[in-house]
Design goal:
Helix content: 40-55%
Family: Belongs to the annexin family.
Radius of gyration: 35 Å
Protein name: Annexin
Largest sheet: none
Structural class: mainly alpha
Distance between the termini: 72 Å
Organism: Planoprotostelium fungivorum
GO molecular function: calcium ion binding; calcium-dependent phospholipid binding; phosphatidylserine binding
InterPro entries: Annexin, Annexin_repeat, Annexin_repeat_CS, Annexin_sf
Shape: elongated
Order of helices and strands: HHHHHHHHHHHHHHHHHHHH
């Protein structure tokens, strides 16, 4: 007999064989009496020294094990198969080093814990993935290393877990009842891409029957409200609205027209014209012609057609363009503005950079110098903008809007709303290279409150 095992010697095992709920005879043991056979067992006693598991729940009607594998050298080997139907422990988080060595985790463990956000649509079993930070609001598993998570989730910027429905619900909770949780609005909308914010706005409308932009307008105010509202609009709508505001009332903000028309793709220009017609009931091209004049009007008319080259640079064509610009400008008395307009409004900024390189080699000065010498006013600014790469252009526009007394918040809001975080980071690098200090530093000095916090999150 075995000493020290359970049950004590001479007593029947639990449960007794043949009674309801008893274990079936073990399959695969050598028959008693044959060489190498185990002594007859009374019930199912664990072997000597087999440590009982602390807190192991009592088994109620434990289901029979199918095809219990033959044991080689009892006690059980490492790799003990998972028991079918083993009840998961309610809310018990996985601990480091658990389960005991050799006992594989049961499929789908751990079970969902109370309050844990639902997995994104289509997420595999075991969400969230091992090693990833828990979504905002989810309790960290017991014993897991503490990670400092400063944003809700970054979606396309590198973290998992973007769920527009869950973000919409979070925004609703932040605006429901008395007061508004502005920090939560910043945390959700400030870290999403433009495309993701549009999905959130769509989900919000589907769930609550109200436009997210209207909800934000009701719950916030000032420049903070203006920036939030634009963040949940499509980019071409933001640009259409910006053009409308540029031409509304007395006078025209010509620089705003340049901001949009010189730094927009051909495809987006077509979308802008369609949106303008739908929202304001007038033809954008006709409206611009009625608000501008002279060479500035001609240049804008070429740009609004959306016919600028967008393909790779042809260096041979760039060399010829450099010669043509010289002949139309500095070589002659007066300026052939039609030639200037044709070249500068039909070529891409990258192509015009190549033209500039040839102009420097041929004439010892830049093509920008030629523009400044031959043109003036808004017409000059437009041609220079056509020659400037997007990141450099908006870096300088931000510097202008922040310089001097006061801040041009309308320009600041526009630039922040139409760019995703990677683009804003590229603009910030150009800003620092040009001006010797960071964009964040200058914005902090010119903004305040939740408005400043939102901008910092967008630039982060």
């Amino acid at each position: 007999m075995y000493g020290g095992g359970y049950p004590p010697a001479g007593q029947p095992g639990y449960p007794p064989q043949g009674q309801p709920g008893a274990y079936p005879p073990q399959q695969g043991y050598p028959p008693a009496g044959q060489p190498g056979a185990y002594p007859p067992q009374q019930g199912y006693p664990p072997q000597q020294g087999y440590p009982p598991q602390q807190g192991y729940p009592p088994q109620q009607g434990y289901p029979p094990q199918q095809g219990y594998p033959p044991q080689q050298g009892y006690p059980p080997q490492q790799g003990y198969p998972p028991q079918q139907g083993y009840p998961p422990q309610q809310g018990y988080p996985p601990q480091q080093g658990y389960p005991p060595q050799g006992y594989p985790p049961q499929q789908g463990y751990p079970p969902a814990q109370p309050g844990y956000p639902p997995a994104p649509y289509g997420a595999p079993a075991g969400y969230p993935p091992a090693g990833a930070p828990a979504p905002y609001g989810a309790p960290a598993p017991y014993g897991a290393p503490v990670a400092v998570v400063t944003t809700y989730a970054v979606g396309s910027y590198g973290t998992y877990g973007f769920d527009p429905k869950r973000d919409a619900e979070t925004l609703r909770a932040a605006m429901k009842g008395l007061g508004t949780d502005e920090k939560m609005l910043i945390r959700v909308l400030g870290c999403r891409s433009n495309a993701e914010r549009l999905q959130i706005a769509t989900a919000y409308h589907q769930i609550y029957g109200k436009h997210l932009e209207k909800a934000l307008d009701d719950e916030t105010s000032g420049n903070f409200c203006k920036l939030l509202r634009r963040l949940v609009r499509p980019t071409h709508i933001i640009k259409s609205d910006h053009l409308h505001e540029a031409m509304a009332g007395m006078g025209t903000k010509d620089r705003w027209l340049i901001d949009v028309l010189t730094q927009t793709s051909n495809a987006e220009l077509q979308a802008i014209k369609t949106a303008y017609q739908q929202d304001y009931g007038s033809n954008l091209e006709h409206r611009i012609r009625s608000e501008t004049s002279h060479n500035f009007k001609k240049a804008l008319d070429h740009l609004i057609r959306g016919c600028r080259e967008e393909g790779p640079v042809n260096d041979a064509v760039a060399s010829e363009d450099a010669k043509t610009i010289y002949k139309a400008g500095e070589k002659k008395w007066g300026t052939d503005d039609d030639t200037f307009i044709k070249i500068f409004t039909s070529r891409s900024a990258a192509h015009l950079q190549a033209v500039n390189n040839h102009y420097i080699r041929n004439r010892g000065k830049t093509v920008l110098d030629a523009i400044k010498n031959e043109t003036s006013g808004d017409y000059k600014d437009l041609l220079l903008a056509c020659c400037t790469m997007r990141e450099q252009y908006f870096a300088e526009r931000l510097h202008t809007s922040l310089a001097g007394i006061g801040t041009s918040d309308a320009v600041l809001v526009y630039i922040l709303a139409i760019h995703d975080r990677p683009q804003l980071q590229a603009i910030a690098r150009c800003y620092q290279q040009k001006h010797g200090h960071t964009l964040e530093h200058d914005i902090r000095g010119d903004t305040s409150g939740h408005y400043k916090d939102l901008i910092m999150e967008l630039l982060r």
